[in-house]
Amino acid sequence: MRARKLNAIRAFIPAAIFLFVLASRGAAQVPASDHVFLLMLENHSYEQVVGNTNAPYLNSLMKTYGLATNYDANSHYSIPNYFWLTTGASVTNLDTTQAVFDVDNVTRYLLPAGKTWKAYEESIPSAGYTGPTVEPYEKNHDPFAYLSDVVNSTTNNNIVPYTQLATDIANNQLPNYALITPDSSHDGHNTNLAAVDAWLSANLPSLLATPVFQPGGNGILIITFDESLDSDCRPLATCPALPENSGGGRVATVVIGPTVTPGFQSSTFYQHPSVLKTMLLALGISGAPGTAQNAPPMADFFGPAVPPPPPLCAGNGVNQTITICAPTASQNTTSPVEVTAAATDSAPLKYMQIYLDGAKVYQIANNQLDTSVTMANGTHRVTVQAQETTGATFKATVNIAVGPGSGPAPCTLNPQNQTVTICSPANGATVSSPVEVIAGTTDAVLVKYMQIYLDGVKVYETMSSSLDAQVAMTTGTHRVTVQASDGVTFKSSILLRVQ
Prior knowledge:
The chain is an alpha/beta fold.
């Protein structure tokens, strides 16, 4: 909050600048996310933050994830910047206002799309509070407390004390969209950067440890500062009389998540509306309020879109049919037997199952399967069955003969509880595509599923405690992670080179 109350207001940066930047972008896309978070800090310039030894934790996040090196706030003072991030407009420059504003805003895009939202406000007097500042809670750092959509409805209960975040993490009830606002004792407004960093290092690890921020998750957290120093009005060359809406100075902005290119630094020019645009796009919402509609999304942090690998088994195109690609009918083979199949259906599928001589041996929540089934020597009937969410089932069957043979070496598991053992390929191996991944789990309770992640992207899942799957990979070095869950997630990773 600022003490000065001047009336000079500058024109917005033309939307044409944003359109030009958007048109010049490459093939990168903002990936889909189920949970996007914005954490707001206060009143520090880019140069004060980046490389500052008094902020080791925040700088470690910059190195691990992504940093915007050419990001300027929109305004001086505080309140318009919070509005730029939630409405795409400045709305007001008066930090002490108690007005309620009927303006287009992010909640008008979230709610029709069926998305949940919360504002986690540290030191707020109570949930749903929309009254004036009560230090160290500052109302002008809580834009939702001014929006008519929120103030005049029960959605004001989405404004909650920051302590609610720990409860939501524990109950697996994180909202789709969230604003996190430390109070003025921790956000850099009334304190130094060391205190900010101490708060971040004490509070962020619990959020980043949730599954949505682990490999295979799709969470996105953006940390930015509302404005730089009063003497910094970049992108303007000099500062006009304050308050103003032509430039709030360069600020450090960090983009965090498992889909962010590690160590990436973006030199693209961004301002606050790009954060709003990026968060909505990640939630699958194409529209955005105000200037955010035409703001360039921060897609370069996520790298180019990677097309999914081709299916190992393609369906025949006929509705409600199963195609068994392997084994083939009357095939003579050895154990274990790789079973590859695909379902074709116009309705959503609940699962696919494998039955060996009438007994269910495998199930997966997918329209394709590729797994190995242990079979005794002799003749067997292999049936692959699928069930729609409506309850309708359809299936296909092949008869095969299993004879003696060496087969692949067994997978010897680590005896320690809650561990994943990757038996093949070996760590550091050089292989060719497709790569057979064989892994198993050791767990005292039932494993709900196992998953394979290729460079952080999930490519396979099975509702089993072991897996044997073929994974298509491009030439180069890859990280393969096999993850399992019994309610608690545990995993193992290897590096390999595909030639």
